[in-house]
Amino acid sequence: MQIITPNSEAFLYKYLNNHSPTGHEASGQKIWLEYLQPYIDEWKIDNYGTAYGIINPGTGFNVVIEGHSDEISWFVNYITEDGFIHVIRNGGSDHVIAPSMRVNVHLRNGNTIPGVFGWPAIHTRTDKDANLTPNLENITVDVGAKDKEEVLKMGIHVGCVITFQDELTKINNRYYCGRALDNRMGGFCVAEVARLLKENQVKLPFTLYVVNSVQEEVGLRGAEMITQTIQPHVAIVTDVTHDTGTPLINKKKHGDIRCGQGPSLTYAPAVHQKLIDLIIASAEANEIPFQREASSRATGTDTDAFAYSNGGVPSALISLPLRYMHTTVEMAHMDDVSNVIRLIYETLQRIEYGHNFKYFNSL
Questions:
Q1: Are 274 and 246 in contact (CB under 8 A)?
Q2: pLDDT by residue (tens digit) across 193-211?
Q3: At what angle do helices 26-36 and 181-199 cross, to 10 degrees?
Q4: Residues 115, 85: contact at Cβ < 8 Å?
Q5: Which residue range is the domain that position 209 belongs to?
């Protein structure tokens, strides 16, 4: 069974190269739905832009597979009289990596203005400035304007969103590399599961919702809303997790997770123990490699929003190991992407309407 086809990889590049910052995900959702439609029976979009496809509607037992569609970005917060732009975060944007990065300033009419996060040249910094580091107070965007008036005439105003310029590439024919793998790669994975179900003529005994949520990066808000709409009985969420094998990461604090060694399964209060056991059984039966990690309180993913909704929804998290999260050079091993897709696909075929529903609710 071919997991990622040339056609699906073409979709991946189109989808990842599109800019869909938190609160402005519409363009990415259109790309996602266009790809997904041949593999589903129905589709819908909620008021804030969460998109979902429905397979086998109307059974009375609802299962969700979900990723989130938004990427981190910046808001224009203040424009100086000299025409430089100060920003605030939209999600968990990293100020340390900002200097010298190229950006797009997104206008309300859909156009973009190119700019850069400037930084003073090394020649101009004195010994007193040796420890100068980027922070939200001193990073600014330069759009080449002579003053504030020109910035405003460009259509840039407070509240415009700014994203980093970047395109998806491959490294060593082994890793996908770029911005927004967190977590449009999850949206890609659940769409591929839908494709495999359709192409392999798998008939599920329940209704499957293939969900691409918005606004995860600012508090799991899209999942929080959509779980009230769908009212699922089971939720399998996919997101990214840290590859802790790279330099400067403390494994004793963050665990030992490596790219190329399979999806990571999280143990946490929000993760339903019988559901994670079912996922592990699927992995072992199909020889899908996997890793384990633990979260002491919250997973920090949409899993929490699904688990603690509607009186409690059995939920689990399947994570894609990722290097350099929230940068423009996020890296995911291609084998791990395929294995996330395989693991969700195989697990769905072990969920039985009726039997497993009672199983999840029993002690």
A1: no
A2: 999 999 999 999 999 999 9
A3: 20
A4: yes
A5: 6-71+179-361
Within 8 A by CB and 6+ apart from 106, the residues are: 19, 21, 24, 112, 160, 161, 162, 163
Distance (Å, rounded) from C-alpha 290 to C-alpha 346?
Answer: 14
Q: Which tens digits make up the pLDDT trace of 245-286?
A: 999 999 999 999 999 999 999 999 999 999 999 999 999 999
Q: What is the CATH number of the domain that holds 337?
A: 3.40.630.10
Mark which of 164, 194, 210 sits at the end of a domain: 164
Q: Which tokens is 320 given?
A: 């894609």
Radius of gyration from C-alpha coordinates of the chain: 21
> Is 169 among the domain residues?
no
Q: Which of 333, 319, 295 is nearest to 173 (CA)?
A: 333
Q: Measuring CA to CA, how many Å separate 165 from each of 105, 206, 329?
A: 10, 41, 11
C-alpha 308/C-alpha 293 separation (Å) is: 21
DSSP character at residue 198? H
